[in-house]
Amino acid sequence: MSHSDPDIAEATRTMLDADTASASLGIDVVKARDGHAVARMRVTERMVNGHGIAHGGFLFLLADTTFACACNSHGPVTVAAGAEISFITSARLGDELVATASERTRYGRNGIYDVTVHRETPTGREVIAEFRGRSRTVGQVQ
Ligand SMILES: CC(C)(COP(=O)(O)OP(=O)(O)OC[C@H]1O[C@@H](n2cnc3c(N)ncnc32)[C@H](O)[C@@H]1OP(=O)(O)O)[C@@H](O)C(=O)NCCC(=O)NCCSC(=O)Cc1ccccc1
């Protein structure tokens, strides 16, 4: 259901309300405005692979969703044209992950966004993954 939230741009809210993929993983978007976004996800049992660590595909999805929220916060429909990820250290069952997306640049219909996934530890932030996404706006540009 759609609801007004000053921290989440309307276009991003509309996209998220229809995003069953992200919702099914319990991804919680807490901020998405002006090309930046923050989302959280807890590593659950079904995200754990055969080595007892979080499957990289789920970490990618968290970063990808946060990227989507950032690049769609401007309004026009924007999709991912490409992305890459570096898995820095393993995430584990029960970890509360936070993804932070920052817009690096936009040129024409293209954009570049960096996303850092981290968890909080008693000694500070620990980086889990670094993601870079390339966006392409396919909706009408104002
Ligand atoms: C769009 C482009 C990247 C470039 O295509 P080019 O042809 O070089 O450039 P051009 O700018 O002319 O684009 C025209 C083309 O754009 C398409 N289109 C138009 N309207 C819409 C629409 N409303 N919705 C969707 N597509 C639309 C249509 O095909 C049209 O071609 P047509 O005119 O029909 O012949 C293409 O390669 C593509 O769709 N790749 C797959 C993208 C993909 O699946 N990504 C992964 C999923 S995203 C994700 O999971 C997370 C995420 C979400 C959001 C953000 C970040 C992360």
Describe it for me?
There is one protein chain. The protein has three helices and six strands; from the N terminus they run H-H-E-E-H-E-E-E-E. It has a single domain (10-139), classed as Hotdog Thioesterase (Thiol Ester Dehydrase, Chain A). The two termini are 27 Å apart. 20% of the residues lie in helices and 43% in strands. The protein is an alpha+beta fold and 142 residues long. The protein has helices at 10-17, 20-24, 56-71, and strands at 28-33, 36-42, 78-87, 96-107, 110-121, 124-137. It has a six-stranded antiparallel sheet with strand order 1-2-4-5-6-3, covered by helices on one side. The site of Phenylacetyl coenzyme A (FAQ) has 14 residues, from helix 3, strand 3 and strand 6.
Main sheet, how many strands, which sense, barrel? 6 strands, antiparallel
What average pLDDT do the residues reach?
Answer: 95
What does the radius of gyration come to?
Answer: 15 Å
Rough outline: globular
Note the run of SSEs as H and E: HHEEHEEEE
Poorly predicted runs are none
Distance between the termini: 27 Å
CATH architecture: Roll
Name the CATH class. Answer: Alpha Beta
Structural class: alpha+beta
What is the strand tally?
6
CATH topology call: Thiol Ester Dehydrase, Chain A
Brief overview:
Helix content is 20%, strand content 43%. The chain is α+β, with helices and mostly antiparallel strands and 142 residues long.
